[in-house]
From TrEMBL:
CDD domains: CuRO_2_CueO_FtsP, CuRO_3_CueO_FtsP. InterPro entries: Cu-oxidase-like_N, Cu-oxidase_2nd, Cu-oxidase_C, Cu-oxidase_fam, Cu_oxidase_Cu_BS, Cupredoxin, TAT_signal. Its EC number is 1.16.3.4. Keywords: Metal-binding, Oxidoreductase. Monomer. One of its GO terms (molecular function) is copper ion binding. This is Multicopper oxidase CueO.
Length: 509
């Protein structure tokens, strides 16, 4: 069944709003103050599918100063109407909610000046980048209110979609949820030679997909209960670049969609209505070796994919997403914990984007060869490290290798320049997206099986299913610092905040 906004809102908002409000008050959590709210009845929350023009984040290319690309950004408190007429308090980067798409080129030096104009501390992490630990923007690079942080690094990444977001100690979840996240486009010569769609906002579209809990009054809430701590915060409404029921008017015969799962916890299987195919061209860290014809793409929080879709038939297309079941048995929200939060519903299909085609459009031609990637050769590895993800009883003991995140403990010391196998085991009953800072890795196998198309390229975040073991091949190429760590963690932000995170330093070999 297509979960249209009308059905979702009319049937569930009141009931869920009550359930949520109760949990919210009892837990004593106010993630951020909510202002300017007007009571709304459920009927006012209705809107027609595909009725709101998709917001496209402004493209920000900074300014070149003495050969360095300089970005000036400020973290600001904002107000956003997730439901018309009801303002919620948010956080944005030079915007009330989310922020500009930062555009940069491989090989150049970038410099940021980030002012924290919030009333709370924050961090800004460059997800997917190889960079000095001091510039990483993890929990150790706290920007206090009123302070400025000015990291600088050389862009080593291949052209792709990356992102920047809050990584505040224990509070990445609420800050990203409130809006502290935005895309990064890295461009390079390798990709430009291919002539792929790359006209920003025209035929090259970033889609930041985020679910949010909107209560019965139309307000954004972050109801952190025992259930949401365990399953992660999953919303009842879906926003793309902050737009609900988004529609995009295409002007070209093909579109390149760069999809970022920017949700705190929800996994999505993206597909086109009518089971139409898409050409999958890129993973987290850039182009795949060739386009893969796919009918669906699964993305966990933190993961990205790029697809090219064909509009040359001139018929409207609809991008959908369903929520795969990511928990086994009792922990699925249906047994031990009960269905206390029906937002966990898997099997529901969300409408992500309605695409209206151009009146006349020419046929799509994607090159058959995109990039040449080195073969994934595990025999080059000099050692294997093992990471075991655990949730403890009822999600009360989030840990990796038996230890919860401790800012004062370096869990791993990794020599620079050496290939290693990182073996990620998940004995828990829920899937976890494992993310490693400062590297783009390759997926060797899943329980010995070859990885799917999306995982044949470079990745920085990988799904580890319940009872599964995933092997990664990686190497840290430079930036040693024996004192300042990078993070590896589950990218379900509530799991990260609860301690499913560890720290490593890169050291001289
Ligand atoms: Cu996208 Cu450590 O984070
Ligand atoms: Cu990261
Ligand atoms: Cu997790």
């Amino acid at each position: 069944m297509i979960r249209t906004p009308r059905i979702t809102h009319a049937l569930s908002v009141d009931r869920r709003g009550l359930i949520k409000s109760a949990g919210f008050a009892a837990a004593g959590f106010a993630a951020f103050p909510l202002a300017g709210c007007k009571a709304q009845d459920a009927s006012m929350l209705d809107s027609t599918p595909g009725s709101n023009p998709l917001a496209i984040p402004p493209l920000q290319s900074g300014e070149i100063e003495q050969g360095t690309r300089v970005f000036r950004l400020s973290l600001t408190p904002g107000q956003k109407e997730f439901v018309p007429g009801v303002a919620s308090s948010t956080i944005g980067i030079d915007a009330p909610y989310l922020g500009p798409t930062l555009e940069m080129r491989r090989g150049e030096r970038v410099q940021f000046h980030i002012d924290n104009n919030l009333a709370e501390g924050a961090t800004v992490h460059w997800h997917g980048f190889e960079l000095p630990a001091a510039a990483d923007g993890g929990p150790h690079q706290l920007i206090r209110p009123g302070e400025r942080w000015s990291p600088s690094f050389e862009v080593r990444q291949r052209a792709s979609l990356y992102w920047y977001h809050s990584h505040l100690e224990r509070k990445a979840g609420p800050q990203v949820y409130a809006g502290l996240a935005a895309p990064i486009y890295v461009r390079d010569d390798e990709e430009e030679r291919l002539d792929l769609p790359s006209d920003y906002g025209v035929d090259d579209i970033p889609l930041i997909v985020q679910d949010r809990v909107i209560d019965g009054f139309g307000r954004l809430v972050y109801p952190l209960s025992m259930h949401t701590r365990m399953m992660g915060m999953r919303g009842n409404r879906i926003f793309v670049n902050g737009t609900e029921n988004a529609v995009f008017d295409a002007q070209t015969g093909q579109l390149r969609l760069r999809i970022l799962n920017g949700s705190n916890a929800r996994f999505y299987d993206f597909s086109l209505e009518g089971d139409r195919s898409m050409q999958l061209i890129a993973s987290d860290g850039g182009l795949l070796d060739r386009p893969h014809i796919v009918r669906s793409v699964r993305l966990a929080p933190g993961e990205r994919a790029q697809v090219i879709i064909d509009l040359s038939e001139g018929r409207p297309l609809r991008l959908l997403a369903s929520s795969p079941e990511i928990a086994m048995g009792m922990m699925g929200g249906r047994g031990m914990m009960g269905r206390g939060n029906s937002d966990d519903a898997s099997g529901d299909v969300f409408q992500i984007l309605d695409i209206r085609p151009a009146s006349s459009a020419q046929r799509i031609r994607v090159p058959t060869q995109l990039a040449s990637l080195a073969p994934t050769d595990p025999s080059s590895a000099v050692r294997t490290r093992r990471f075991v993800l655990d949730m403890g009883m009822m999600g009360g003991g989030m840990s990796i290798n038996g230890a919860a995140m401790d800012m004062n403990v370096i869990n791993e010391r990794v020599p620079v320049g050496q290939w290693e196998i990182w073996e990620i085991a998940n004995p828990s009953m829920m899937a976890h997206p494992f993310h490693i800072h400062n590297v783009q890795f390759r997926v060797i196998d899943r329980d010995g099986r070859a990885p799917p198309a999306l995982e044949t390229g470079l990745k920085d975040t990988v799904i580890v299913n319940p009872r599964e073991q995933v092997r990664l091949l990686l190497r840290f190429e430079e930036h040693t610092d024996p004192g300042l760590p990078y993070m590896y963690h589950c990218h379900i932000l509530e799991h990260e905040d609860a301690g499913m995170m560890g720290q490593f330093v890169v050291v001289q070999s």
